[in-house]
Write a structure and sequence with these properties.
- This protein has 191 residues and is α+β, with helices and mostly antiparallel strands.
- The chain contains three helices and eight strands.
- Strand 7 and strand 8 form a beta hairpin.
Length: 191
């Protein structure tokens, strides 16, 4: 005896929901980005770590997050644009001299960092956070990839350096790996 079955057509699957992030960042120059990505590939090979290495346009030094949520409200972009436009800060050098892993359970971000920050970086972060930055020194870092295992601390024989001449307002759609620079502002030249 045949059994009649019916199918239920629910349409195409729902698109993946992404988390929108809006933040200020320092972006590395092309030479620094190339050096960092070469280092990341060598590091993965040396430690047998798997994980997708960031694309050059995803590399950044975070300064201050303005928004995190589903969708990006125009008000958040307008607020951040006004905040960025009123910054008056000097350029400064970024110098990464170590590579470390951070244990986040099953994910291990592999980051470039250094032993200390700079007063000029602290001033920039303070202005971008509208004076609400937590106290203390800001130590910059730049994520290269999320590894599948913890890798040891590594001192770099040759530090990765560049001069931050500007800062950017960046929109990322996390989960979709979409990153877009919305605006850039120059940092004044040091005297």
């Amino acid at each position: 005896m045949p059994i009649d079955q019916f199918s239920l057509d629910l349409g195409p699957p729902s698109p993946r929901r992404s988390l929108d992030l809006l933040y200020f960042a320092i972006l590395p120059g092309a030479a620094a980005a190339d050096t960092a990505l070469h280092l990341a590939r060598d590091d993965q090979e040396r430690h047998g770590a798997a994980g997708e290495i960031y694309d050059p346009d995803r590399l950044h030094v975070s300064l201050h997050r303005v928004w995190k949520g589903l969708g990006l409200p125009n008000e958040a972009v307008h607020y951040a644009t006004r905040l960025g436009a009123r910054v008056d800060a000097a350029s400064f050098d970024i110098r990464f001299d170590r590579l470390v892993s951070i244990d986040q359970g099953r994910r291990y971000p592999r980051i470039l960092t250094c032993g200390s920050g700079s007063q000029l970086l602290d001033e920039l972060v303070n202005q971008l956070s509208d004076g609400k930055a937590p106290g203390g020194e800001v130590v910059p870092h730049m994520t290269l990839y999320y590894g599948d295992r913890f890798a040891p601390y590594t001192d770099l024989g040759t530090p990765i350096t560049w001069t931050a001449l500007d800062f950017a307002l960046v929109h990322t759609r996390k989960g979709l790996s979409e990153t877009k620079v919305l605006r850039r502002w120059p940092l004044s030249r040091r005297t």
